[in-house]
User: What shape does this take?
Amino acid sequence: MTQDFNAKTDSVAAPDANRVFLVLVDESEEMHVALRFASLRAKKTGGRVALLHVLAPAEFVHWLGVEAIMKQEIRDEGEALLQKYAAEVNRVTGKPAIMLMREGDQAAQVAQLLREDRSISVLVLAASTSAEGPGPVVSHLTGKGLDDLRTPVTIVPGGLTDEEIDAIT
Assistant: This one.
């Protein structure tokens, strides 16, 4: 029996409430593009958005009290950034974002999270529009980190406008 792939069907794929779109939250100009793309895809598929913010490792400080204060300030700034973008995700999708925070190298932490958390369906990144290249995480995951990757990656051009993102999602 053959199937006619051109035939129209009345069935529509059921939303996948388990689909999780991971977005790396930082202060880059292109991050907004990845966030909007992931939020709109999550809304259309019935999925959710997870936000990951990676804290840079604290520089060595000679006084433990000062180091603890510096680490807490960095963590507070990271939490505020996550809260800001979580509110945007909630506004677009109608669902709360999953918020994650780690410390270390961004590319390494993203790769480790993808290995550990099998609930993440898609990693959404936006490529930098700068002359230096697409960005360290995109470069890592499309280069030497590609062999270990078991999660699909969507790389969105960082220069897209909101209207262009709306048109393709």
